[in-house]
Structures are given as structure tokens and as C-alpha cells.
Amino acid sequence: MDLKTGTRLPDWFKVEVRSGDNFSRLKGLLDEHGLHTVCRGARCPNLWECWNAGTATFMILGDSCTRNCRFCGVPPARSIRPPDPREPEKIAETAARLGLAWVVITSVTRDDLPDGGASHFQACVKAVRSRCPGTSVELLIPDFRGERRALETVAASGAAVIAHNVETVPRLYAEVRPEADYQRSLEVLGWLASHSESRYTVKSSIMVGLGEETGEVLAVLGDLAEAGVGAATLGQYLPPSKKHLPVKKFYTPQEFTELAESAIKAGIPRVASGPLVRSSYMAHELAGREMRREENLPG
Q1: In the chain, what is the greatest distance between 2 CA atoms, to the nearest angstrom?
Q2: 290 and 252 in contact (C-beta within 8 Å)?
């Protein structure tokens, strides 16, 4: 039983909570620089594992969002603060001190900013690459309302992977992501893929367990492949609190394996699929290999 949400977890859904030197070191650096992570903001179940491995997904542009998706643990904005101009250097300093080879950067949605925060993403990539030339950067971006200039900015940032998550099936958008648009997200992914010129991999992610049908998930995988997505993750939805949408179904490990096989058949070469998989889980490994059907899948 998850005491925070009252959700009864199946036997195979186990999260090992374990502190360690790397966990304490990373937590100290994040607190020292006043940095936010999606690991804590979204209450990710892999926080302990990733932090003990010395990896984290930095969340820029604040810790509250201008949208209010009903699956997400990041709180909606009550007051809007301007971006911290020192944030790119703080992230670069933390990456350097941790010796990270792969840095994932995401953000809250900032519809209040003229470019949605795209230039801030670009500044973060440049700061990390300048301070840590051997470090690769993955971006997980909002839809920027489909604005081409914003997409051009992140496409030219020097990131190795640019991800944008569709999250769920089109039928559930009104309930799960009322301020987002499935077709717009596909167009964002398609534009990024068509303009990559092999500079970066395009990635997306789907949560399952919100009431979708298997056929709907397969249709989304087909849409992602057609858009040019080169890497995808599929994971189990878990409500961050009792106020969020409840779980309608827990998928078994075997079902996640079958979804991975379907994604590969649809034409997505790199896939991670499992109960605990999240969009940035094992990001460096997913970006560097193609998942074959016979490989063990995370989760």
C-alpha cells in the first residue's frame, strides 16, 4: 500500500528505498545551489536508484507550472517568478562536481514566457557543454504551444536527445492533460525529427494505467513512429497524491514486454518498457543502444 495515495500496489511493484554516499552528495549539491529536480517534484519512484547512481533530471524555470495536468505531482503556479539567470551555471557546476557523463534537463511549462523558456533550455545546454565538454545533454521539453522559433532554439542547442512526451492516448487528453493537445504534441515531435539532421535523437514517453485500451496505446506507438521518434519509454502511471487521478489498471511485466515488442515492430528502434520506467529513467543507456526483443527490459 502506498500510504501517500492509498493505492494498493501489486506484488511485482517494488521500490527499494536506500540511501548512500552518492544520494547524500547529490542532495547536498542540489540544496546548495537551490536547484529543482523532477525526481522530487514529480515524486519519481526511481529517485533513490538514480540518485545513488549519481544521476538526476534537473527541472528548470521554477518548481511550479502554468498548467495543471491531473497526473503530475508538480504544483500549478500560484505566483510566477522570472527565470533564474544563474541557473544554467548552477547546473553546469553541479554536473562538473558530480562528474556526470549524461545530464537530463526538463522544465515546468511556462506559457507566460514569450518563448516558453526555450532560450533558457539553450543556455543550460551551452553552460553544461562549456563546463563539461564530454558530457551529453538530454532535454525533455514542453510543447511550447507549437511555436517554431522555440523549437528552432532547442533544436540548435547542442542537445544529444530532445524529448517531448505525449503521456497518454488522445481520448484521455481532456481528462488527463486538459491544457495540452495530442495533435500538437505529434507535430512538435514530427518537426523535431524532420529537422534533426542527425544532430539529436527524438524521444517520447507514454504512461499506462489511466483507462486506455491496448489498441489505443498501439495506435499512439504507430503515430510516434510515423512522426520520426527514435526512442520511447512506457511506464506505469502512479498518482502522486490522493488528489490526482486514480490508477485504473496495473500492467504486468509481461504486458510491458509485449508493449515494447509492439513499439519495435511499429518502427521505434530504442524502447524501455516496465512498471518503474519513466521518461528519463536510464536515459544514457536508452540513447546509446537499440533494444532487441530478447533483451531484458527495465522494470
Answers
A1: 49
A2: no
Least confident stretch, 67-76, 129-138, 145-154, 182-191: 67-76
- Burial of 19 by CB count in 10 Å (0-12 exposed, 13-18 middle, 19+ buried)? exposed
C-alpha to C-alpha distance for 204 and 279, rounded to whole angstroms:
7
Model confidence pLDDT, tens digit, residues 61-75: 887 666 676 666 566
User: Which of 123, 110, 122, 180 is closest to 152 using CA atoms?
Assistant: 122
CA distance 159 to 138: 6
Question: What phi and psi, each to the nearest 5 degrees, are found at residue 180?
Answer: -110, 175
Range of the structural domain that residue 200 is part of: 21-75+83-287
Residue 28 pLDDT greater than 80, yes or no = no
Residue 184 lies in a domain: yes
Residue range 185-241, pLDDT digits in tens: 999 999 999 999 999 999 999 999 999 999 999 999 999 999 999 999 999 998 877
Under 8 Å between Cβ of 74 and 120 = no
In three-state secondary structure terms, 151 is helix
Gap between the Cα atoms of 236 and 206, Å rounded: 9
Nearest Cα neighbor of 31 from 88, 106, 94, 105 is 94
Q: Distance between CA atoms of 144 and 129, rounded to whole angstroms?
A: 23
Total domain count, the chain: 1
Q: Is the pTM of this model over 0.90?
A: no
For position 42, what pLDDT does the model report?
47
In a domain, 255, yes or no: yes
Q: Which of 91-95, 123-127, 194-198 has the lowest mean pLDDT?
A: 91-95
CATH of the domain at 219: 3.20.20.70
* In a domain? residue 297: no
CA distance 179 to 188: 16
3-state secondary structure at position 214:
helix
Residue 9, in any domain of the structure: no
